[in-house]
Each structure stands twice: as C-alpha cells, then as structure tokens.
User: Fold this.
Amino acid sequence: MSERGEIKPKIDSEYSLDKIQDAYRYVEKESKFGSVIIKVVNN
Assistant:
C-alpha cells in the first residue's frame, strides 16, 4: 500500500542520537502530530 501512495507516514520531527533527551521531552509534552525520528549515524 505504501508503494501506491495510500499510506503516507507523518513525521513530526527528527533528532540526532546525541539529542535523544530533547526528543523524549518533546514526546512527553504530547504536542507531537506524527512520529519522532531518532537518527543514528556512524561517523
């Protein structure tokens, strides 16, 4: 279904792994409208 465009994810915000505490606080406020993404990157 997502290939046909029937399902579209709602992404509210993105945080890097080092900002995970900020992301958690944001989710706890219950003001988000979609998913909160945590980006994990190897440097």
About this structure: The chain has a mean pLDDT of 86. Residues 11-43 form one domain. Strands lie at 11-16, 35-39. The CA atoms of residues 14 and 37 lie 5 Å apart.
